[in-house]
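TICKET: design request
STATUS: open
ATTACHED STRUCTURE:
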Protein backbone atom coordinates (compact mmCIF):
# COMPACT_ATOMS: atom_id res chain seq x y z
CA UNK A 1 0.00 0.00 0.00
CA UNK A 2 2.96 2.34 0.43
CA UNK A 3 3.48 2.19 -3.35
CA UNK A 4 -0.19 2.69 -4.25
CA UNK A 5 -1.33 6.17 -5.18
CA UNK A 6 -4.70 6.70 -6.84
CA UNK A 7 -4.31 10.47 -7.16
CA UNK A 8 -1.02 10.27 -9.10
CA UNK A 9 -2.37 11.24 -12.53
CA UNK A 10 0.43 13.25 -14.16
CA UNK A 11 3.52 11.49 -15.49
CA UNK A 12 6.80 12.73 -13.94
CA UNK A 13 4.96 15.70 -12.43
CA UNK A 14 3.68 16.48 -8.96
CA UNK A 15 -0.11 16.37 -8.58
CA UNK A 16 -1.52 19.11 -6.37
CA UNK A 17 -2.52 17.91 -2.86
CA UNK A 18 -1.56 14.30 -3.74
CA UNK A 19 0.45 13.41 -0.65
CA UNK A 20 1.41 9.95 -1.95
CA UNK A 21 2.77 11.17 -5.29
CA UNK A 22 6.45 10.07 -5.49
CA UNK A 23 7.14 12.90 -7.95
CA UNK A 24 6.45 15.52 -5.25
CA UNK A 25 9.36 17.01 -3.29
CA UNK A 26 9.45 18.53 0.19
CA UNK A 27 9.12 21.96 -1.38
CA UNK A 28 5.94 20.80 -3.16
CA UNK A 29 4.49 19.37 0.06
CA UNK A 30 5.05 22.73 1.81
CA UNK A 31 2.59 24.32 -0.62
CA UNK A 32 -0.18 21.71 -0.10
CA UNK A 33 -3.31 22.75 1.79
CA UNK A 34 -4.61 19.19 2.44
CA UNK A 35 -4.14 15.56 1.44
CA UNK A 36 -6.74 14.60 -1.15
CA UNK A 37 -6.24 10.89 -0.30
CA UNK A 38 -5.51 10.67 3.46
CA UNK A 39 -5.49 6.85 3.69
CA UNK A 40 -4.65 4.05 1.26
CA UNK A 41 -5.65 0.46 2.04
CA UNK A 42 -5.96 -2.82 0.18
CA UNK A 43 -8.90 -5.21 0.32
CA UNK A 44 -11.23 -4.13 3.15
CA UNK A 45 -12.44 -7.74 3.56
CA UNK A 46 -9.11 -8.82 5.06
CA UNK A 47 -8.96 -9.36 8.83
CA UNK A 48 -5.67 -7.49 9.12
CA UNK A 49 -3.85 -5.36 6.57
CA UNK A 50 -1.39 -2.51 6.16
CA UNK A 51 -2.69 1.03 5.77
CA UNK A 52 -0.75 4.06 4.55
CA UNK A 53 -1.72 7.27 6.41
CA UNK A 54 -0.92 10.68 4.88
CA UNK A 55 -1.30 14.05 6.62
CA UNK A 56 0.20 17.55 6.72
CA UNK A 57 1.98 19.19 9.65
CA UNK A 58 0.91 22.79 9.12
CA UNK A 59 2.63 23.98 12.33
CA UNK A 60 6.05 23.11 10.95
CA UNK A 61 7.98 25.76 9.09
CA UNK A 62 7.75 25.14 6.25
CA UNK A 63 4.75 22.72 6.36
CA UNK A 64 5.72 19.13 5.74
CA UNK A 65 4.06 15.82 4.87
CA UNK A 66 3.70 13.07 7.52
CA UNK A 67 3.62 9.45 6.38
CA UNK A 68 2.73 6.47 8.62
CA UNK A 69 2.39 2.76 7.83
CA UNK A 70 0.12 1.04 10.34
CA UNK A 71 -1.61 -2.32 10.84
CA UNK A 72 -5.38 -1.96 10.46
CA UNK A 73 -7.71 -4.54 12.05
CA UNK A 74 -11.10 -5.34 10.52
CA UNK A 75 -13.81 -5.21 13.24
CA UNK A 76 -16.11 -7.55 11.28
CA UNK A 77 -16.58 -11.10 12.63
CA UNK A 78 -16.48 -12.60 9.13
CA UNK A 79 -13.31 -11.57 7.32
CA UNK A 80 -10.60 -13.11 5.15
CA UNK A 81 -7.74 -14.37 7.30
CA UNK A 82 -5.39 -15.37 4.49
CA UNK A 83 -5.51 -14.93 0.69
CA UNK A 84 -4.36 -18.41 -0.32
CA UNK A 85 -5.72 -18.09 -3.86
CA UNK A 86 -3.24 -15.68 -5.41
CA UNK A 87 -4.87 -15.81 -8.85
CA UNK A 88 -7.92 -13.98 -7.45
CA UNK A 89 -5.86 -10.87 -6.65
CA UNK A 90 -5.36 -9.92 -10.28
CA UNK A 91 -6.95 -10.38 -13.68
CA UNK A 92 -5.38 -13.06 -15.81
CA UNK A 93 -4.94 -12.40 -19.50
CA UNK A 94 -7.31 -14.60 -21.50
CA UNK A 95 -5.92 -16.99 -24.05
CA UNK A 96 -6.27 -15.85 -27.62
CA UNK A 97 -7.58 -18.59 -29.94
CA UNK A 98 -5.01 -19.85 -32.40
CA UNK A 99 -4.90 -22.77 -34.77
CA UNK A 100 -2.95 -24.73 -32.16
CA UNK A 101 -5.15 -24.19 -29.09
CA UNK A 102 -8.58 -23.77 -30.72
CA UNK A 103 -9.71 -27.38 -30.15
CA UNK A 104 -8.62 -27.27 -26.51
CA UNK A 105 -10.45 -23.97 -25.85
CA UNK A 106 -13.57 -25.22 -27.61
CA UNK A 107 -13.66 -28.34 -25.46
CA UNK A 108 -13.28 -26.24 -22.29
CA UNK A 109 -15.85 -23.52 -23.02
CA UNK A 110 -18.39 -25.00 -25.47
CA UNK A 111 -20.90 -26.11 -22.79
CA UNK A 112 -23.49 -23.81 -21.27
CA UNK A 113 -21.55 -23.69 -17.98
CA UNK A 114 -17.90 -24.12 -17.15
CA UNK A 115 -15.69 -23.83 -14.10
CA UNK A 116 -13.63 -20.72 -13.48
CA UNK A 117 -11.61 -22.42 -10.79
CA UNK A 118 -8.05 -23.60 -11.50
CA UNK A 119 -7.46 -27.26 -12.23
CA UNK A 120 -5.39 -27.56 -9.05
CA UNK A 121 -8.58 -27.26 -7.01
CA UNK A 122 -10.02 -30.44 -8.56
CA UNK A 123 -8.39 -33.24 -6.60
CA UNK A 124 -9.80 -36.04 -8.79
CA UNK A 125 -11.34 -34.74 -11.99
CA UNK A 126 -11.24 -38.07 -13.79
CA UNK A 127 -13.32 -39.88 -11.17
CA UNK A 128 -16.30 -37.51 -11.29
CA UNK A 129 -19.53 -39.36 -10.62
CA UNK A 130 -22.65 -38.89 -12.78
CA UNK A 131 -24.50 -37.21 -9.91
CA UNK A 132 -21.72 -34.62 -9.62
CA UNK A 133 -21.90 -33.94 -13.33
CA UNK A 134 -25.53 -32.85 -12.99
CA UNK A 135 -24.85 -30.63 -9.97
CA UNK A 136 -24.82 -27.58 -12.26
CA UNK A 137 -28.47 -28.11 -13.17
CA UNK A 138 -29.75 -28.04 -9.59
CA UNK A 139 -31.39 -24.79 -8.51
CA UNK A 140 -32.09 -23.07 -5.25
CA UNK A 141 -35.03 -20.78 -4.58
CA UNK A 142 -34.84 -17.49 -6.47
CA UNK A 143 -31.85 -18.41 -8.65
CA UNK A 144 -32.37 -17.27 -12.28
CA UNK A 145 -33.25 -20.16 -14.59
CA UNK A 146 -30.44 -20.59 -17.10
CA UNK A 147 -30.90 -21.27 -20.78
CA UNK A 148 -28.31 -22.16 -23.39
CA UNK A 149 -27.76 -18.52 -24.37
CA UNK A 150 -28.67 -16.61 -21.17
CA UNK A 151 -31.69 -16.81 -18.85
CA UNK A 152 -35.34 -17.68 -19.25
CA UNK A 153 -37.00 -14.37 -20.06
CA UNK A 154 -40.12 -13.15 -18.31
CA UNK A 155 -40.69 -9.63 -19.68
CA UNK A 156 -41.80 -7.08 -17.12
CA UNK A 157 -42.93 -3.44 -17.24
CA UNK A 158 -40.43 -0.59 -16.89
CA UNK A 159 -40.69 3.12 -17.64
CA UNK A 160 -44.44 3.68 -17.99
CA UNK A 161 -45.36 0.00 -18.43
CA UNK A 162 -43.20 -0.64 -21.52
CA UNK A 163 -41.85 -4.19 -21.77
CA UNK A 164 -38.29 -5.02 -20.79
CA UNK A 165 -36.89 -8.42 -21.78
CA UNK A 166 -34.08 -8.25 -19.21
CA UNK A 167 -36.12 -9.74 -16.35
CA UNK A 168 -34.98 -13.35 -15.63
CA UNK A 169 -37.41 -15.90 -14.20
CA UNK A 170 -36.39 -17.09 -10.71
CA UNK A 171 -36.65 -20.74 -9.68
CA UNK A 172 -39.84 -21.45 -7.65
CA UNK A 173 -40.85 -17.78 -7.88
CA UNK A 174 -44.39 -17.66 -9.31
CA UNK A 175 -44.78 -14.45 -11.27
CA UNK A 176 -47.41 -12.78 -13.43
CA UNK A 177 -46.62 -9.60 -15.34
CA UNK A 178 -48.26 -7.36 -17.94
CA UNK A 179 -46.54 -4.79 -20.11
CA UNK A 180 -46.97 -2.79 -23.31
CA UNK A 181 -44.89 -3.35 -26.45
CA UNK A 182 -44.61 -1.09 -29.47
CA UNK A 183 -45.61 -2.80 -32.73
CA UNK A 184 -46.56 -2.01 -36.30
CA UNK A 185 -48.09 -4.11 -39.04
CA UNK A 186 -45.28 -3.34 -41.48
CA UNK A 187 -42.55 -4.59 -39.11
CA UNK A 188 -44.40 -7.28 -37.14
CA UNK A 189 -42.46 -10.06 -38.85
CA UNK A 190 -39.16 -8.54 -37.72
CA UNK A 191 -40.05 -7.97 -34.06
CA UNK A 192 -38.63 -10.94 -32.14
CA UNK A 193 -40.66 -10.39 -28.96
CA UNK A 194 -44.00 -11.03 -30.75
CA UNK A 195 -42.88 -14.37 -32.21
CA UNK A 196 -43.34 -17.79 -30.57
CA UNK A 197 -39.71 -18.62 -31.40
CA UNK A 198 -38.50 -15.89 -29.05
CA UNK A 199 -39.91 -17.78 -26.06
CA UNK A 200 -39.23 -21.43 -26.94
CA UNK A 201 -36.11 -21.31 -29.10
CA UNK A 202 -33.73 -21.54 -26.11
CA UNK A 203 -33.73 -24.73 -24.08
CA UNK A 204 -33.36 -24.68 -20.29
CA UNK A 205 -29.92 -26.31 -20.36
CA UNK A 206 -30.77 -30.00 -20.96
CA UNK A 207 -34.57 -29.49 -21.14
CA UNK A 208 -36.36 -28.30 -24.27
CA UNK A 209 -39.37 -25.99 -23.93
CA UNK A 210 -42.43 -27.67 -25.46
CA UNK A 211 -45.64 -25.99 -26.61
CA UNK A 212 -48.52 -27.14 -24.41
CA UNK A 213 -51.40 -25.22 -26.00
CA UNK A 214 -52.07 -22.41 -28.46
CA UNK A 215 -55.11 -20.11 -28.31
CA UNK A 216 -55.83 -17.77 -31.21
CA UNK A 217 -57.63 -14.50 -30.48
CA UNK A 218 -59.44 -12.75 -33.33
CA UNK A 219 -59.67 -9.01 -33.81
CA UNK A 220 -63.07 -8.95 -32.08
CA UNK A 221 -61.69 -10.80 -29.03
CA UNK A 222 -63.01 -14.32 -29.71
CA UNK A 223 -60.74 -17.15 -28.51
CA UNK A 224 -60.19 -20.42 -30.39
CA UNK A 225 -58.14 -23.33 -28.98
CA UNK A 226 -56.12 -25.04 -31.68
CA UNK A 227 -56.45 -28.82 -31.86
CA UNK A 228 -52.71 -29.31 -32.36
CA UNK A 229 -50.06 -27.50 -30.35
CA UNK A 230 -47.20 -28.80 -32.52
CA UNK A 231 -47.76 -26.19 -35.21
CA UNK A 232 -45.39 -23.24 -34.97
CA UNK A 233 -47.25 -20.12 -36.02
CA UNK A 234 -45.05 -17.18 -36.91
CA UNK A 235 -46.21 -13.58 -37.41
CA UNK A 236 -47.29 -12.81 -40.96
CA UNK A 237 -49.19 -10.08 -42.80
CA UNK A 238 -52.54 -11.05 -44.34
CA UNK A 239 -54.80 -8.40 -45.92
CA UNK A 240 -53.11 -5.54 -44.01
CA UNK A 241 -53.52 -7.46 -40.74
CA UNK A 242 -50.63 -8.99 -38.83
CA UNK A 243 -51.65 -12.34 -37.38
CA UNK A 244 -50.02 -14.83 -34.98
CA UNK A 245 -48.41 -12.21 -32.75
CA UNK A 246 -47.83 -13.25 -29.12
CA UNK A 247 -50.24 -11.64 -26.66
CA UNK A 248 -49.55 -13.95 -23.73
CA UNK A 249 -47.12 -16.65 -22.61
CA UNK A 250 -47.58 -18.98 -19.64
CA UNK A 251 -44.64 -21.16 -18.59
CA UNK A 252 -45.10 -24.26 -16.45
CA UNK A 253 -41.94 -25.79 -14.96
CA UNK A 254 -41.80 -29.29 -13.45
CA UNK A 255 -38.95 -29.98 -11.01
CA UNK A 256 -37.71 -32.67 -8.64
CA UNK A 257 -37.18 -32.40 -4.89
CA UNK A 258 -33.44 -32.07 -5.62
CA UNK A 259 -34.05 -28.83 -7.53
CA UNK A 260 -33.59 -30.26 -11.03
CA UNK A 261 -35.85 -29.02 -13.84
CA UNK A 262 -37.12 -32.03 -15.79
CA UNK A 263 -39.85 -30.48 -17.93
CA UNK A 264 -40.78 -27.06 -19.28
CA UNK A 265 -43.95 -26.21 -21.20
CA UNK A 266 -45.33 -22.99 -22.62
CA UNK A 267 -48.91 -22.01 -23.46
CA UNK A 268 -49.50 -19.19 -25.93
CA UNK A 269 -52.23 -16.71 -26.74
CA UNK A 270 -51.79 -15.42 -30.29
CA UNK A 271 -53.62 -12.41 -31.66
CA UNK A 272 -53.90 -10.07 -34.60
CA UNK A 273 -53.48 -6.33 -35.10
CA UNK A 274 -54.50 -3.99 -37.88
CA UNK A 275 -52.57 -1.07 -39.28
CA UNK A 276 -54.11 1.38 -36.77
CA UNK A 277 -52.53 -0.41 -33.80
CA UNK A 278 -49.35 1.15 -32.41
CA UNK A 279 -48.88 -1.07 -29.36
CA UNK A 280 -50.14 -4.25 -27.73
CA UNK A 281 -50.44 -5.45 -24.15
CA UNK A 282 -48.63 -8.71 -23.42
CA UNK A 283 -49.10 -10.90 -20.34
CA UNK A 284 -46.55 -13.37 -18.97
CA UNK A 285 -46.82 -15.97 -16.24
CA UNK A 286 -44.67 -18.73 -14.78
CA UNK A 287 -45.61 -21.47 -12.29
CA UNK A 288 -43.81 -24.45 -10.78
CA UNK A 289 -44.96 -27.97 -9.85
CA UNK A 290 -42.94 -30.66 -8.12
CA UNK A 291 -43.01 -33.98 -9.97
CA UNK A 292 -45.57 -36.54 -8.73
CA UNK A 293 -47.50 -33.90 -6.79
CA UNK A 294 -50.81 -32.18 -7.44
CA UNK A 295 -50.53 -28.40 -7.72
CA UNK A 296 -52.63 -26.56 -5.12
CA UNK A 297 -52.75 -22.74 -4.90
CA UNK A 298 -51.24 -21.30 -1.72
CA UNK A 299 -53.03 -18.81 0.53
CA UNK A 300 -49.87 -17.26 1.96
CA UNK A 301 -46.20 -17.95 2.54
CA UNK A 302 -46.11 -18.95 5.30
CA UNK A 303 -48.92 -17.09 7.09
CA UNK A 304 -52.39 -16.58 5.65
CA UNK A 305 -53.07 -13.48 3.61
CA UNK A 306 -56.34 -11.68 4.30
CA UNK A 307 -58.82 -12.34 1.51
CA UNK A 308 -57.33 -15.64 0.32
CA UNK A 309 -59.24 -18.94 0.77
CA UNK A 310 -58.81 -21.10 3.87
CA UNK A 311 -57.27 -24.39 2.73
CA UNK A 312 -58.92 -27.59 3.92
CA UNK A 313 -58.77 -31.37 3.51
CA UNK A 314 -59.71 -34.66 5.06
CA UNK A 315 -58.05 -37.83 6.32
CA UNK A 316 -58.01 -40.73 3.86
CA UNK A 317 -59.92 -43.84 4.82
CA UNK A 318 -58.05 -46.85 6.19
CA UNK A 319 -55.49 -45.01 8.33
CA UNK A 320 -55.65 -45.07 12.13
CA UNK A 321 -53.95 -41.68 12.09
CA UNK A 322 -53.40 -39.13 9.31
CA UNK A 323 -50.14 -39.83 7.47
CA UNK A 324 -51.03 -37.39 4.72
CA UNK A 325 -53.85 -34.90 4.29
CA UNK A 326 -55.92 -35.22 1.13
CA UNK A 327 -57.10 -31.85 -0.11
CA UNK A 328 -60.81 -31.18 -0.17
CA UNK A 329 -62.67 -32.40 -3.23
CA UNK A 330 -63.64 -28.95 -4.47
CA UNK A 331 -61.59 -27.29 -7.16
CA UNK A 332 -58.84 -25.81 -5.04
CA UNK A 333 -59.07 -27.67 -1.70
CA UNK A 334 -60.85 -24.91 0.21
CA UNK A 335 -63.21 -24.59 3.15
CA UNK A 336 -66.62 -23.55 1.77
CA UNK A 337 -70.06 -22.49 3.02
CA UNK A 338 -73.51 -22.16 1.48
CA UNK A 339 -73.68 -19.52 -1.23
CA UNK A 340 -76.67 -17.19 -1.20
CA UNK A 341 -78.73 -17.08 -4.37
CA UNK A 342 -80.99 -14.36 -5.75
CA UNK A 343 -84.24 -16.33 -5.28
CA UNK A 344 -83.32 -17.40 -1.70
CA UNK A 345 -84.74 -20.89 -2.33
CA UNK A 346 -82.81 -23.49 -0.30
CA UNK A 347 -83.79 -26.44 -2.48
CA UNK A 348 -82.67 -24.59 -5.61
CA UNK A 349 -79.38 -23.55 -3.96
CA UNK A 350 -78.10 -27.10 -3.45
CA UNK A 351 -74.50 -27.44 -4.66
CA UNK A 352 -73.79 -23.68 -4.73
CA UNK A 353 -70.79 -23.06 -2.46
CA UNK A 354 -68.49 -20.10 -1.84
CA UNK A 355 -64.98 -20.31 -0.35
CA UNK A 356 -64.27 -19.08 3.15
CA UNK A 357 -61.81 -16.19 2.83
CA UNK A 358 -59.31 -15.68 5.64
CA UNK A 359 -60.13 -12.69 7.84
CA UNK A 360 -63.57 -12.11 6.31
CA UNK A 361 -66.58 -12.64 8.58
CA UNK A 362 -69.31 -14.02 6.33
CA UNK A 363 -73.06 -14.72 6.57
CA UNK A 364 -75.13 -16.50 3.92
CA UNK A 365 -78.48 -18.20 3.87
CA UNK A 366 -81.68 -19.14 2.16
CA UNK A 367 -85.33 -19.82 2.96
CA UNK A 368 -86.85 -23.30 3.24
CA UNK A 369 -90.52 -23.73 2.37
CA UNK A 370 -91.94 -26.64 4.38
CA UNK A 371 -95.21 -28.38 3.53
CA UNK A 372 -97.19 -31.04 5.36
CA UNK A 373 -96.21 -33.64 2.76
CA UNK A 374 -92.49 -33.48 3.56
CA UNK A 375 -90.82 -36.39 5.39
CA UNK A 376 -88.55 -35.74 8.36
CA UNK A 377 -85.52 -37.93 7.59
CA UNK A 378 -85.01 -36.94 3.91
CA UNK A 379 -85.47 -33.29 4.83
CA UNK A 380 -82.86 -33.52 7.60
CA UNK A 381 -80.28 -35.08 5.25
CA UNK A 382 -81.02 -32.50 2.55
CA UNK A 383 -80.42 -29.64 4.98
CA UNK A 384 -77.18 -31.19 6.28
CA UNK A 385 -75.89 -31.51 2.70
CA UNK A 386 -76.98 -27.95 2.08
CA UNK A 387 -75.13 -26.54 5.12
CA UNK A 388 -71.99 -28.70 5.06
CA UNK A 389 -71.73 -29.66 1.41
CA UNK A 390 -71.24 -33.15 0.07
CA UNK A 391 -67.85 -33.67 1.76
CA UNK A 392 -67.21 -31.38 4.70
CA UNK A 393 -63.44 -31.29 5.43
CA UNK A 394 -61.91 -32.72 8.58
CA UNK A 395 -58.78 -30.54 8.71
CA UNK A 396 -57.79 -26.95 8.02
CA UNK A 397 -54.25 -25.84 7.13
CA UNK A 398 -52.69 -23.84 9.94
CA UNK A 399 -50.52 -21.89 7.47
CA UNK A 400 -51.22 -20.65 3.98
CA UNK A 401 -48.45 -22.87 2.56
CA UNK A 402 -48.95 -26.03 4.66
CA UNK A 403 -48.08 -29.13 2.67
CA UNK A 404 -50.21 -32.27 2.63
CA UNK A 405 -47.41 -34.46 3.98
CA UNK A 406 -46.82 -32.17 6.98
CA UNK A 407 -49.68 -33.57 9.08
CA UNK A 408 -48.79 -31.53 12.17
CA UNK A 409 -49.41 -28.35 10.17
CA UNK A 410 -53.12 -29.21 9.89
CA UNK A 411 -55.75 -28.36 12.53
CA UNK A 412 -58.69 -30.76 13.08
CA UNK A 413 -62.19 -29.27 12.88
CA UNK A 414 -64.14 -29.74 16.11
CA UNK A 415 -67.89 -30.35 15.68
CA UNK A 416 -70.66 -29.32 18.11
CA UNK A 417 -74.43 -29.85 18.11
CA UNK A 418 -76.90 -27.47 19.73
CA UNK A 419 -80.69 -27.33 19.81
CA UNK A 420 -83.06 -24.37 19.86
CA UNK A 421 -86.21 -24.27 21.98
CA UNK A 422 -88.37 -22.95 19.14
CA UNK A 423 -91.09 -25.38 17.99
CA UNK A 424 -92.63 -25.26 14.53
CA UNK A 425 -95.95 -27.09 14.19
CA UNK A 426 -95.18 -29.16 11.13
CA UNK A 427 -94.90 -32.91 11.79
CA UNK A 428 -97.07 -35.27 13.82
CA UNK A 429 -94.08 -36.44 15.84
CA UNK A 430 -91.23 -34.13 16.77
CA UNK A 431 -88.48 -33.86 14.15
CA UNK A 432 -85.07 -32.31 14.65
CA UNK A 433 -83.79 -30.49 11.56
CA UNK A 434 -80.55 -28.44 11.22
CA UNK A 435 -81.15 -24.77 10.52
CA UNK A 436 -77.70 -23.15 10.85
CA UNK A 437 -73.98 -23.82 10.61
CA UNK A 438 -71.63 -21.55 12.54
CA UNK A 439 -67.88 -21.81 11.87
CA UNK A 440 -65.43 -20.08 14.20
CA UNK A 441 -61.79 -19.79 13.14
CA UNK A 442 -59.34 -18.80 15.86
CA UNK A 443 -55.99 -17.51 14.67
CA UNK A 444 -52.92 -15.91 16.15
CA UNK A 445 -49.96 -13.83 15.06
CA UNK A 446 -46.92 -16.09 14.77
CA UNK A 447 -43.22 -15.27 14.53
CA UNK A 448 -41.44 -11.92 14.67
CA UNK A 449 -43.19 -8.78 15.90
CA UNK A 450 -41.74 -6.97 12.90
CA UNK A 451 -43.39 -9.29 10.37
CA UNK A 452 -46.03 -11.45 12.13
CA UNK A 453 -47.60 -14.34 10.22
CA UNK A 454 -51.25 -15.38 10.54
CA UNK A 455 -51.64 -18.95 11.83
CA UNK A 456 -54.91 -20.83 12.41
CA UNK A 457 -54.89 -22.66 15.76
CA UNK A 458 -58.50 -23.82 16.22
CA UNK A 459 -61.62 -24.35 14.09
CA UNK A 460 -65.10 -25.26 15.38
CA UNK A 461 -68.23 -26.05 13.40
CA UNK A 462 -71.53 -25.82 15.29
CA UNK A 463 -74.77 -27.22 13.85
CA UNK A 464 -77.89 -25.76 15.43
CA UNK A 465 -81.12 -27.78 15.15
CA UNK A 466 -84.74 -27.01 15.93
CA UNK A 467 -87.87 -29.09 16.59
CA UNK A 468 -90.71 -29.36 14.08
CA UNK A 469 -94.25 -30.69 14.51
CA UNK A 470 -96.97 -31.60 12.02
CA UNK A 471 -98.67 -28.81 10.02
CA UNK A 472 -102.36 -29.02 9.08
CA UNK A 473 -102.97 -30.30 5.55
CA UNK A 474 -102.51 -27.62 2.91
CA UNK A 475 -100.57 -25.29 5.18
CA UNK A 476 -96.98 -24.08 4.52
CA UNK A 477 -94.27 -22.52 6.64
CA UNK A 478 -90.99 -20.79 5.71
CA UNK A 479 -87.90 -21.30 7.87
CA UNK A 480 -84.57 -19.37 7.45
CA UNK A 481 -81.42 -21.49 6.97
CA UNK A 482 -78.13 -19.68 7.66
CA UNK A 483 -74.37 -20.25 7.50
CA UNK A 484 -71.79 -17.98 9.11
CA UNK A 485 -68.03 -17.71 9.58
CA UNK A 486 -66.33 -15.69 12.31
CA UNK A 487 -62.57 -15.09 12.59
CA UNK A 488 -61.24 -14.43 16.10
CA UNK A 489 -57.76 -13.09 16.81
CA UNK A 490 -56.50 -14.73 20.02
CA UNK A 491 -52.98 -13.30 19.89
CA UNK A 492 -51.60 -12.43 23.31
CA UNK A 493 -50.92 -8.69 23.62
CA UNK A 494 -47.33 -7.63 24.12
CA UNK A 495 -46.39 -7.06 27.73
CA UNK A 496 -45.85 -3.43 28.83
CA UNK A 497 -42.26 -2.39 28.27
CA UNK A 498 -41.50 -5.41 26.10
CA UNK A 499 -38.56 -4.88 23.74
CA UNK A 500 -38.49 -6.63 20.39
CA UNK A 501 -34.71 -7.13 20.62
CA UNK A 502 -33.73 -7.82 24.26
CA UNK A 503 -30.11 -7.42 25.33
CA UNK A 504 -28.40 -10.64 26.45
CA UNK A 505 -25.28 -10.34 28.58
CA UNK A 506 -23.41 -13.62 28.08
CA UNK A 507 -19.90 -14.74 27.22
CA UNK A 508 -19.57 -16.68 23.99
CA UNK A 509 -17.66 -20.01 23.99
CA UNK A 510 -14.16 -19.94 22.55
CA UNK A 511 -15.15 -22.02 19.49
CA UNK A 512 -18.33 -20.07 18.74
CA UNK A 513 -17.15 -18.91 15.29
CA UNK A 514 -15.51 -22.20 14.27
CA UNK A 515 -14.45 -22.88 11.50
CA UNK A 516 -14.02 -19.15 10.86
CA UNK A 517 -10.78 -17.70 12.20
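STATUS: resolved
RESOLUTION: sequence designed for all positions
ATTACHED SEQUENCE:
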Amino acid sequence: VAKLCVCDLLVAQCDVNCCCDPDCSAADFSLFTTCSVPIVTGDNRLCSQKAAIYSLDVEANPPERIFKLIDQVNPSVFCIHATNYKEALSFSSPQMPTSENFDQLLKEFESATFSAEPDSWNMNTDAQSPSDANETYRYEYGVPIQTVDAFLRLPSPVLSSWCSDANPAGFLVNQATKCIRSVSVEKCGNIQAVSMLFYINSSILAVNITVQSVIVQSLNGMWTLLNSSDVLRLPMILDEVCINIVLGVSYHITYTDAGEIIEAAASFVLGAINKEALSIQQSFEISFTQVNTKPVPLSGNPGYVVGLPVRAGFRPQGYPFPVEILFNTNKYGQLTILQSTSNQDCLAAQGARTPVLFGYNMVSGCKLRITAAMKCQPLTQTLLDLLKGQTFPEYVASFGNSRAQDVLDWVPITHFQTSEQRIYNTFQSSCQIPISLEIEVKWTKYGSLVNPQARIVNVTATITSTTLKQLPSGRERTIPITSSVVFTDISSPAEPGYKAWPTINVKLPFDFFFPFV
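CLOSING REMARK: Residues 308-489 form one domain. Helices lie at 26-29, 102-109, 130-133, 197-200, 376-388.
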